[in-house]
């Protein structure tokens, strides 16, 4: 597909990197010579210097025939005008990154008037993810599928876990009756799709999937129970903190927000009457202790500096805060701090990338089974995807044990007639089912991409 990305900041670069790796024709538009030089040297993309909202620049980038334009500059107004201009020029689908709260009040009208097909607010998406983690603090990460009826959660394997050192096939007696599946494991940066012979090891990041009740019962079984979060300590008073506080106030959680800018403290005090806003330096340990950090249930670091977020989060872990969440956009930091015990690290730019990647794949595959949800596991070494089975899906009614599945593919969950099923070898895919797949090492656009029909052809030729 021909894709234009307006804005080569962190978000734009991440998108260009992922989309070019999937062999799309990507053109980056930016006003910065340095940003374009970096992209041109490191990525397989075209670069156009200019204002992404101008007709001449967009024409040079190919907007008249583009399949998708993604406007991801730091200025909402440029993003919206860029989408409007590109739409009038002939671009089929437009996506705008819009962060200003005032612009996101009436999204339907904004989309209609400005020719925007999809509005994405990374700060609000990040806040919703953090709120999910605070609702169930034992999980390091949570993703939902099928309108919340299936959950994928991860946790770090600890020394006392009963399943260490034995193959998954031997665990059936301990987890029998729980509708859950070990669907992936991240070991030293490598994502493994496990089978019955897989043996979990200390320090593995384990991913389990299933119905919410079953997943929660499994966490209790392995001793990951935690009391409900009531008090939340937040450092940083930016947009994410505002959205998060708005959500948590409705959940009757009590918040303290530490913000260094006095004017921003006044704004937050007016907008968040139920939260306590503290003017001060959230990286100052004396201030944190004077505000009773050790008595809080959860700590969230949301400053504009990744380094500050990670350092104060590690300090909160030292103070035995049960749930600690940190914002970090630098991918190379995430693996390091996870090795130090900080498992819940949130990246707003990766949220945008995953959402848009899902849209791109869906538009690539207009005739097949449409992807409903996409979630990247680990550092992107594997993906969990939700599809709806339709009449184009091959091998309907064939038992899973007889399917010619490609290597690294796991059929994790089937929703059949409203029932959530952890499939067995005799399970089948039927018309109208929803299926959740886990795949490593390949981009899946359609359910049919999981089949290796050459296996059947070779078998028939013998």
Automatic annotation (TrEMBL):
PROSITE patterns: RCK_C, RCK_N. Residues 1-120, 229-346 form the RCK N-terminal domain. GO terms for molecular function: potassium ion transmembrane transporter activity. InterPro entries: K_uptake_TrkA, NAD(P)-bd_dom_sf, RCK_C, RCK_C_sf, RCK_N, Trk_Ktr_HKT_K-transport. One of its GO terms (cellular component) is plasma membrane. The keyword Ion transport applies. SUPFAM superfamilies: NAD(P)-binding Rossmann-fold domains, TrkA C-terminal domain-like. Keywords: Ion transport, NAD, Potassium, Potassium transport, Transport. Residues 140-224, 372-453 form the RCK C-terminal domain. It comes from the Bacteria. PANTHER family: POTASSIUM CHANNEL PROTEIN 2-RELATED-RELATED, TRK SYSTEM POTASSIUM UPTAKE PROTEIN TRKA. This is Trk system potassium uptake protein TrkA. It comes from Candidatus Intestinimonas pullistercoris. The lineage of its organism: Bacteria, Bacillati, Bacillota, Clostridia, Eubacteriales. The gene is trkA.
């Amino acid at each position: 597909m021909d894709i234009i990305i307006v804005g080569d900041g962190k978000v734009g670069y991440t998108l260009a990197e992922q989309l070019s790796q999937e062999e799309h024709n990507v053109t980056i538009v930016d006003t910065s010579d340095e940003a374009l030089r970096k992209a041109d040297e490191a990525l397989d993309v075209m670069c156009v210097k200019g204002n992404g909202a101008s007709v001449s620049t967009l024409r040079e980038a190919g907007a008249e025939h583009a399949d998708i334009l993604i406007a991801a500059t730091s200025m909402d107004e440029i993003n919206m005008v860029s989408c409007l201009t590109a739409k009038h020029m002939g671009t089929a689908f437009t996506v705008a990154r819009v962060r200003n709260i005032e612009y996101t009040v009436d999204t339907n009208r904004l989309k209609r008037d400005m020719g925007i097909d999809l509005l994405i607010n990374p700060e609000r998406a990040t806040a919703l993810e953090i709120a999910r983690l605070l609702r169930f603090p034992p999980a390091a990460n949570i993703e939902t599928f099928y309108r919340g009826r299936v959950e994928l959660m991860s946790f770090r394997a600890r020394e006392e876990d009963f399943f260490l050192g034995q193959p998954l096939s031997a665990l059936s007696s301990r987890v029998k009756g729980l509708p859950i599946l070990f669907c992936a494991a991240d070991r030293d940066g490598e994502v493994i799709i496990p089978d019955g012979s897989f043996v979990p090891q200390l320090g593995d990041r384990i991913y389990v999937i299933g119905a919410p009740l079953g997943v929660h019962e499994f966490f209790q079984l392995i001793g990951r129970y935690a009391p409900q979060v009531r008090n939340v300590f937040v450092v940083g008073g930016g947009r994410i903190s505002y959205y998060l506080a708005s959500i948590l106030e409705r959940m009757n959680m009590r918040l303290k927000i530490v913000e260094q800018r006095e004017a921003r403290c006044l704004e937050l005090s007016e907008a968040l009457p139920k939260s306590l806003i503290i003017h001060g330096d959230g990286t100052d340990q004396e201030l944190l202790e004077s505000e009773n950090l050790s008595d809080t249930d959860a700590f969230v670091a949301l400053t504009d500096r990744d380094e500050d977020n990670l350092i104060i989060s590690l300090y909160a872990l030292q103070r035995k805060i049960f749930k600690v969440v940190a914002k970090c956009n630098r991918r190379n930091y995430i693996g390091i701090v996870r090795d130090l015990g900080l498992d819940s690290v949130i990246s707003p730019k990766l949220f945008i990338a995953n959402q848009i990647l899902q849209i791109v794949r869906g538009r690539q595959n207009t005739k097949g089974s449409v992807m409903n949800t996409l979630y990247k596991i680990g550092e992107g070494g594997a993906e969990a995807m939700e599809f709806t089975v339709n009449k184009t899906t091959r091998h309907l009614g064939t038992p899973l044990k007889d399917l010619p599945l490609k290597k690294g593919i796991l059929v994790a969950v089937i929703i059949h007639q409203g029932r959530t099923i952890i499939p067995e070898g005799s399970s089948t895919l039927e018309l109208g089912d929803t299926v959740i797949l886990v795949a490593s090492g390949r981009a899946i656009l359609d359910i049919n991409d999981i089949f290796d029909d050459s296996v059947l052809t070779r078998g028939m030729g013998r």
